[in-house]
Amino acid sequence: MRKSNKRQAWRNTPRDRAGFRAGIVFMAEKFSTIIAGAGIAGLSACIEASKTKEKSIAILDRFDGTSSNTYFAQGGVACALGKNDSPQKHFEDTVKAGCGLCDELAVRLVTGNGPQAIKELMDLGLEFDGGNTKPDFGLEGGHCAHRVLHIKGDQTGMEIEKFMRKIAGER
Asked: Is the dihedral of CA 16, 49, 162, 135 positive or negative?
């Protein structure tokens, strides 16, 4: 009986639902940065890392980019950018809605940095419903102010991820 080599074994590896082969991939390339995950966090890290002069970045993704939590997030993005709103009010709403389960330091970090993060995405060209000069801020459960941004209605996560993949790919 003849032993199969790695290449033959790889051909027999089952494919996932997106048609990609499961298993281990050996790469000869060397990278200055390796990022695990290709949702909003991984793509944000990639875009940030691409700002350095010496950049060779690898993003590790399990499937084809349609399986992250970001991709399936439909509800919009809450951000204190509207009139009569503030990160402090957003923080207070979030902690109240969390019924004592929130890590207040994390909530303060997210609600405090959210406006700048959304502005950066807008500056890169991401367009929210209503346009970026006067976006449509929705009022949703747990919020005292209109602060929820959407893209194409309920496709917010998918559209943000597609946009960020495009930006990351261009750098």
From this structure: positive
Tokens of 46: 């990639």
Residues of the chain with confidence (pLDDT) below 50? 1-8, 10, 18
Both tokens assigned to 8? 């033959």
SS3 string, the chain, reads CCCCCHHHHHHCCCECCCCCECCCCCCCCCCCEEEECCCHHHHHHHHHHCCCCCCCEEEECCCCCCCCHHHHCCCCEECCCCCCCCHHHHHHHHHHHCCCCCCHHHHHHHHHHHHHHHHHHHHHCCCCCCCCCCCCCECCCCCCCCCEECECCECHHHHHHHHHHHHHHHC
For residues 169 and 137, what is the distance between their CA atoms, to the nearest angstrom?
30
User: Phi/psi of residue 19, each to 5°?
Assistant: 95, 5
Q: What is the pTM of this model?
A: 0.77
